[in-house]
Design brief:
A two-stranded antiparallel sheet has the order 1-2. Helix 2 crosses helix 6 and helix 8 packs antiparallel against helix 9. Strand 1 and strand 2 form a beta hairpin. The chain has 14 helices and 2 strands, in the order H-H-H-H-E-E-H-H-H-H-H-H-H-H-H-H. By secondary structure, it is an all-alpha fold. Bound molecules: geranylgeranyl diphosphate. Geranylgeranyl diphosphate binds next to helix 4, helix 8 and helix 9. The site of geranylgeranyl diphosphate has 16 residues, from helix 4, helix 8 and helix 9.
């Protein structure tokens, strides 16, 4: 008998394969042009082995709302490009200064700093070109709504805003609410967007959109707590990032606020809360429910 976890892992594998094909098709390929190095860096950053959680969220929320896989995988590919850009830039010496990403040298270590900056820029801008394409959705109003929501997510009110707060903490001992706000912007915003994308593509009513965002907010925060717990333990086995104790110690995290045990408990509470947010859906949302539990138990 297939367990829920096996079903989730198999569904995630299917999405990963579809996504890899789509990214390979969309990303520019080196073909003897002066800009080949840029194309290679864009591919290196995007086609490497990530967990592909955000694309999975877009594909599965889309499926719940009857959206075609053609639309959802194209949208998921654009969102993954934005995720890849954020990792490339975050690893740069001016930000986290990480030599490793996804078990391999980070983009600026593999290529060079200037190429990594430009590859990140190109991935971010190309993501919007992909969303604007009619293959994303036939209705241009839907595409415009996606563009607007993704721009808000990636920009000063979301990922970039979260990143600057993370770099320049206001004071030494930020409280729980301040750290939650930071994590919502830095990590949670793209999780929420990945789920909301399905709702936008499916022209879902507001209550469904809100339920999916609430689900994503809860798993996004749980994901970040687990990530910080993994970072606290450090080690090369941690997603190939290598020991990051130095980085964690300087940053405001919920693990720091709550302590390891309470942080773990809070992540569990958030995963259960996420599952409750899916109460409007029948068993077709079971993979999303299982994902909330998977996030709690992940080891990389
Ligand atoms: C705008 C430069 C910039 C950054 C925005 C998202 C972000 C802020 C920085 C990325 C670095 C980082 C460690 C963010 C915390 C969220 C997180 C744990 C990202 C890694 O996500 P995974 O584990 O990565 O899903 P994979 O490699 O599996 O895709």
């Amino acid at each position: 008998m297939t367990t829920r976890r096996q079903a989730l892992e198999s569904a995630m594998q299917d999405t990963t394969e579809l996504l890899s094909q789509k990214l390979d098709e969309l990303l520019p390929a080196p073909e003897g042009m002066p800009e080949d190095r840029l194309f290679e860096a864009m591919r290196y950053a995007t086609l490497s082995q990530g967990k592909r959680i955000r694309p999975f969220l877009t594909v599965k929320t889309s499926e719940l709302l009857g959206v075609s896989i053609g639309s959802s995988i194209q949208t998921a590919a654009a969102i993954e490009m934005i995720h890849a850009y954020s990792l490339v830039h975050d690893d740069l010496p001016a930000l986290d200064n990480d030599d490793w990403r996804r078990g391999a040298p980070s983009c600026h270590r593999k290529f060079d700093e200037a190429t990594a900056i430009l590859a990140g820029d190109a991935l971010l801008t190309y993501a919007f070109e992909v969303i604007a394409n009619s293959r994303t959705h036939v209705d241009c109003a839907v595409r415009l709504e996606l563009i607007s929501a993704i721009a808000r997510t990636a920009g000063f009110a979301g990922m970039v805003g979260g990143q600057i707060i993370d770099l320049n903490p206001l004071h030494d001992q930020p409280d729980f609410a301040e750290v939650v706000r930071l994590q919502r912007m830095k990590t949670g915003a793209l999780f929420a967007m990945s789920c909301e994308a399905g709702a936008i593509l499916g022209k879902a009513p507001q209550n469904i959109r809100m339920s999916l965002r609430a689900y994503a907010n809860s798993i996004g925060l749980a994901f970040q707590i687990i990530d910080d717990l993994l970072d606290t333990n450090g080690g090369q086995e941690n997603g190939g990032k290598g020991p990051r104790l130095h980085a964690v110690e300087q940053k405001a995290t919920l693990v720091e606020c709550l302590g390891k045990d309470k942080a773990q408990e809070h992540a569990k509470f958030l995963a259960n809360q996420a599952i409750e947010h899916l109460s409007a859906f029948d068993k077709r949302a079971d993979l999303l429910r299982e994902l909330a539990l998977f996030i709690l138990e992940r080891e990389s």
